[in-house]
């Protein structure tokens, strides 16, 4: 049996090896170690810093039961003292949000436009009217635009974001899915804009055209992360531990590999439309509607930052 273990998951296991099984599904399960929830999955699309991805082995979680003790022994896991996983090979997934070669802003805007088209096609999967989700999301979208009007480098949410935490049904509520995609997109936007600024200042090959040079907003990424984490801690009681862990990962610029791959496609140089479409499709396939709400969150953040489609003024790029 082989495994890829997320770096954050490994740190937790090494410091707190004893835990308990939290929830079991047909193709995955969650276990809680010292208040942190780790996911066990069998597909790399769900691989993340807080997950253990297992392959080349027979799934064992169908026979597991919640509340049972689980222990990490350095090379596998035991449940109630019985070995259930013994890894002959372990890789470490040490993810850091990054954009290897940033695309120019014109093409990024085109990618955002394409993403909006993909989202429009997928919206038929969302049954939000009966839950009042649409109206609350629309309120947040409007408030976000206003909130950013005079704050080109926001590090916190408008008050209406509180109504989204725990909103909806499913394993991860729709509002939480939306906010996860939104936070990831904002963090990737800052990383992208900072990388474009470096390219501009060093005269790299793909630097912005001289006629469109700009001073890009630069932010201390730790201030952004701290603002997101504070928001999650302040509203932790409104959702459950599975969703809180997803939100916390997004606030750190992390998430399922399918989601971070999509954002890298949007901001990276030389990505073909088909590859972007395939990346979006992999996110749409997450859960019954979770992936669609995540993409909606991504699109809301990016369209407000780069296209001003959320009601506020566009982010201002001042000429040098």
Automatic annotation (TrEMBL):
Superkingdom assignment: Bacteria
InterPro entries for this protein: AllH-like
The protein, known as: DUF2877 domain-containing protein
Organism: Biomaibacter acetigenes
Taxonomy of the source species: Bacteria, Bacillati, Bacillota, Clostridia, Thermosediminibacterales
């Amino acid at each position: 049996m082989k495994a890829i273990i997320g770096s954050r998951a490994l740190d937790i296991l090494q410091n707190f090896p004893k835990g308990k099984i939290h929830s079991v599904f047909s193709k995955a399960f969650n276990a809680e170690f010292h208040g942190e929830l780790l996911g066990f999955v069998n597909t790399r699309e769900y691989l993340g810093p807080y997950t253990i991805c297992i392959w080349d082995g027979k799934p064992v979680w169908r026979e597991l039961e919640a509340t049972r003790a689980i222990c990490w022994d350095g090379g596998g896991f035991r449940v109630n003292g019985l070995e259930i996983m013994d890894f002959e090979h372990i890789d470490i997934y040490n993810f850091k949000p990054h954009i290897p070669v940033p695309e120019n802003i014109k093409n990024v805007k085109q990618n955002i436009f394409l993403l909006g088209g993909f989202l429009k096609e997928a919206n038929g999967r969302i049954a939000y009217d009966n839950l009042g989700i649409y109206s609350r999301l629309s309120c947040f979208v409007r408030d976000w635009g206003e909130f950013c009007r005079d704050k080109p480098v926001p590090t916190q949410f408008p008050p209406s974001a509180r109504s989204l935490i725990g909103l909806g049904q499913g394993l991860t509520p729709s509002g939480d899915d939306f906010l996860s995609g939104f936070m990831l997109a904002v963090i990737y936007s800052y990383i992208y804009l900072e990388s474009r600024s470096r390219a501009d200042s060093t005269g790299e090959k793909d630097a912005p055209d001289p006629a469109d040079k700009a001073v890009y907003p630069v932010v201390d990424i730790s201030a952004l992360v701290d603002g997101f984490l504070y928001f999650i801690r302040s509203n932790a009681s409104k959702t459950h531990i599975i969703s809180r862990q997803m939100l916390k990962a997004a606030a750190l610029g992390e998430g399922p590999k399918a989601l971070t791959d999509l954002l890298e496609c949007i901001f990276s140089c030389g990505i073909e439309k088909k590859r972007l479409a395939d990346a979006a499709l992999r996110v749409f396939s997450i859960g019954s509607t979770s992936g669609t709400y995540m993409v909606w969150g991504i699109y809301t953040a990016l369209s407000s930052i780069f296209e001003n489609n959320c009601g506020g003024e566009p982010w201002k790029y001042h000429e040098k």
